[in-house]
Specification:
This protein has about 200 residues and is mainly alpha-helical. It has a single domain, classed as Tetracycline Repressor, domain 2 (Orthogonal Bundle). The protein has 11 helices and no strands. Helix 6 (about 85-100) runs antiparallel to helix 8 (about 115-140) and helix 9 packs antiparallel against helix 11 (about 175-190). It starts with 6 loop residues before the first helix and ends with a helix. Mean pLDDT is about 85; it is low at about 1-5.
Length: about 200
């Protein structure tokens, strides 16, 4: 007999995923709990049994989103790639994910949901300063990355670039993730790789 995830956990995931999709397209403030319930064909009361309020829901949505990102980063095939390809694959994934969000999502998150925005910043920094930084440092040890590179500064500057991409909806509307990758991180990577 196969045992599947608990119905409660599945419902939580369904609520989080549906909320994420609605927030992604319409922003957070313009999506009500009624909208989420309607989309799921459940009562609003069902959502409130699982999440105390919209603020908690938004925080859990951020955790849900980054759990997906962390699963991608733990992919064992990623570790098999050369340093350059590994970093490009991670940033390309990140840009593809980020440009699916309307800029209003990030505006709402920063302006109206400070606890969720703090979680977002912590998770994002974890990816950049734990995963990316460790790959760059590994590259420096192996001789693939310029040993004089200030890895912390490189990571900070790339965070700023990613923030700029998020806030400029016209960039993601007119350019593919591959082009954005090539002209942001790709250019920076070419400057730090050893010949």
């Amino acid at each position: 007999m196969k045992i599947f995830g608990s119905p409660s956990k599945n419902k939580d995931t369904e609520i989080l995923q549906t909320s994420l999709e609605l927030f992604r397209r319409h922003g957070i403030t313009s999506v009500s709990m009624d909208d989420i319930a309607s989309k799921l064909r459940i009562s609003k009361k069902t959502i409130y049994r699982k999440f105390e309020n919209k603020e908690e829901l938004v925080e859990k949505v951020i955790d849900h989103l980054f759990a997906k990102h962390f699963r991608f980063l733990e992919d064992s095939d990623l570790e098999k790639l050369p340093i350059r390809d590994r970093i490009k694959k991670i940033y390309n994934y990140g840009i593809k994910e980020m440009i699916q969000f309307e800029p209003v999502f990030y505006i709402d998150l920063t302006k109206y949901y400070p606890a969720a925005f703090l979680k977002y910043k912590v998770h994002r920094k974890t990816i950049i300063f734990n995963k990316i930084k460790s790959i760059l440092e590994e590259g420096q040890i192996k001789g693939d990355i310029d040993k004089d590179l200030n890895v912390n500064l490189f990571c900070e500057l790339n965070l700023l670039n990613l923030d700029r991409i998020l806030s400029e909806s016209r960039l993601s509307k007119h350019h593919s993730p591959e082009i954005l990758m090539k002209h942001t991180v790709g250019v920076n990577l070419n400057g730090i790789l050893t010949p």
